[in-house]
Write a structure and sequence with these properties.
5 strands, five-stranded antiparallel beta sheet, 2 helices, alpha+beta, single chain
């Protein structure tokens, strides 16, 4: 479950925050326009975050996500997203 302390790592200048609750966070990167859905499954261990990613919404506004990666904490997931944005904005040269 995400605590209020965990949610503080979501910088509203960096992300457009679409939705947050105890187990799910949906944001859009203001840098790339990519959508991110972060799910705290707490199974089989507490604090596991599954990171889903989408490059854009379709014409109807529907966002189709694919599994991107996993993280141990929300803060670690945010670092991963920022790293992906940096890679994306630098022409995918990694």
């Amino acid at each position: 479950m995400f605590s209020n302390e965990d949610l503080k790592c979501l910088d509203s200048k960096y992300f457009s925050i679409i939705n947050t609750d105890a187990y799910d966070v949906t944001v859009m990167s203001r840098n790339t326009g990519h959508y991110w859905y972060l799910h705290n499954s707490e199974y089989p261990e507490r604090g596991k975050v599954i990171i889903f990613h989408s490059h854009h919404a379709d014409r109807t506004g529907r966002v189709r996500y694919h599994l991107h990666s996993r993280a141990n904490t929300l803060r670690q997931a945010v670092r991963s997203i920022r790293g992906h944005d940096k890679w994306q904005m630098n022409g995918r040269k990694w």
